Amino acid sequence: MKPRFNLPKPNRRMSRQPLVLNGPRRILMLSDIHIPFHDVQALSAAIDFGQQENATDIWLNGDMLDFYSLSSFEKDPRERRFADELEMASSLVEAISTAFPKANVWAKMGNHENRFDRYMTARAPELLGVPAFSLERVLSDAGMNVNFVEDWRVAKFGKLYVFHGHEIGRGGGGQQPARWLHMRTQHSSVCGHFHRTSEFTSKDINGKISTSWSLGCLCDLSPDYMQHNQWNHGFGFVDLKKSGTFNFQNMRIVDGVVY
Predict the structure, then answer these.
(1) Looking at the predicted structure, is the pLDDT value of residue 77 above 60?
(2) Residues sharing a CB contact under 8 Å with residue 60, sequence separation 6 or more, in sequence order
(3) Which single residue of 1, 123, 138, 147 has CA 20 to 30 Å from 199?
């Protein structure tokens, strides 16, 4: 249809298509590791669970790295440098690849990884768009042999939508992040980001039932910048069928024991 008026053209970015993983797969979801502030005991428990359940895919669901040194917040100079974080993240990916030698490893970019682009925008805008200075290239050069999933891109595991959590709007998620997520997606969904295990189920007027979940984290539960919080350790496991249906387990970890 020809426009009736001579209006200026808008700036419009093409919407990113979801990354779709089809079944059958058995997917271990690890969210909010925040290297170098990760919790070794919790991580080990999650990896052990994935081995016992014969995981075919490892999904690192955002904020694998904290990128502390690139933060716009006030920083303690005694904490680890950016290069140290990269080295530790490479060691983690190597350990996961050793534990799951036949598995596909995916790394979803979260809001903490997004600190890299914000840093580049503020400090070196001329290098934006240069492949050698992209975050994926930097991580690859650091030895992380994974399938990268760009920031803001949604994933679908069959009929389950997967987010880090920051993509769907601002807010703390309240006391039940899963409900917050469900109100925005109106679909079976899972996210991390809030460091808290929760579940919410609804039924529409036609009787269709759907459930959303939020994942616990795998990092220090009492960091200096937020010593008092409602965080807990946890992870997810998806048994994805060829039909796109799935069974989701939202696991908690307490003192290194999976529940």
Answers:
(1) no
(2) 30, 31, 33, 105, 106, 107, 108, 146
(3) 147
| 4 within domain boundaries | no
The verdict on residue 25 lying in a domain is yes
Average pLDDT, whole number, for the chain? 91
Beta bridge partners of 203: 209
Give me Rg for the CA atoms of the chain. Answer: 19
Domain count of the chain?
Answer: 1
Within a 13 Å sphere around the CA of 80, how many CA atoms are in the beta-carbon half? 17
Q: Which two tokens stand for residue 29?
A: 């979801």
| Mean pLDDT of the 205-216 span | 96
Whether 118 is in a domain gets the answer: yes
pLDDT tens column, 20-54: 999 999 999 999 999 999 999 999 999 999 999 99
How does strand 209-214 pair with strand 189-191? parallel
CATH number of the domain that residue 154 is part of: 3.60.21
pLDDT at 5: 83
Q: Starting at the earlier edge strand, list the strands of the sheet with 233-240.
A: 147-149, 104-108, 57-61, 25-30, 233-240, 246-254, 257-258
Q: DSSP letter for 242, please.
A: T
Angstrom distance (rounded) from CA 202 to CA 182: 8
Question: What is the SS3 assignment for 21?
Answer: strand
Nearest CA-CA partner of 140 in 102, 105, 192, 115: 105
Q: pLDDT digit string (tens) for 120-156?
A: 888 888 888 888 888 899 999 988 889 999 988 999 9
CB 110 within 8 A of CB 91: no
Structural domain containing residue 205: 19-71+78-258
Q: Count each helix (H run) and each strand (E run) in the chain, helices first.
A: 5, 13
Q: What is the pTM of this model?
A: 0.90
